[in-house]
Amino acid sequence: MAYQIAICDDNPADVRFLSNLLKSWGAERGALLHMDTFPSAEAFLFHYEEQKNYDLLLLDIEMTGMDGVTLARTVRSGNESVQIIFITGYSDYIAEGYDVSALHYLMKPVHKNRLFQVLDRALEKLRRNERMLTLELPEEILRIPLYEISYLEVRKNYVTIHGKQEYTVKKTLGEFEPLLDERFFRLGRSYILNLTQVQRITKTEVTLSSGCVIPLPRSMYEPLNRAVISL
Description:
The protein is α/β, with parallel strands linked by helices. It contains 6 helices and 15 strands. The strands form 4 sheets. A 5-stranded parallel beta sheet has the order 2-1-3-4-5, sandwiched between helices. Strands 10-9-8-12-11 form a 5-stranded antiparallel beta sheet, with no helix packed on it. β11 (184-187) and β12 (191-194) form a beta hairpin. The longest helix has 18 residues, at 12-29.
């Protein structure tokens, strides 16, 4: 698979430096990379209107015109899966990255080994996002990316998959467990949660990033916390 990468930075020397490091990393990992470079956030967004299939964005924060954080917010509003890495000379912006689920901040000057470590994490996340759940519905076969699934819920003999849409099939939770991956956690007899969607855990309930609140069995509080921390 070829990975689509964009570098957005208004410093040509930094763009060349990052491009060369990315080529070196791709060659070492056997990853095919297609790279585009942009001198401003505005130039990127103009191109992005026609091509939204980027897997990885490396964004300078301090740019003339629109800054990298604002650009990331614009992209993230319609794209949950793209991996975002900020490049910055200042640590003041780090808190803002949480708003857009940034993978990492790299401080300038960027060091090769640190960049490679972050790119390895990005590649692993991208590969995980390629995994699908196949559903056999009455009139179609549907493939749902696992990262889009918020949780699964069983009621009587039916399981509902909650995500961008809801789908209900006649199965058991046990039949779904081997079809999922390490992001998913069996919560008692009624639920399987996507741990990456967990926003808050109390002694009695779990709040997901969608705003959905799920009751938490008393015995599951510690196991769930350990699962989230170790993910």
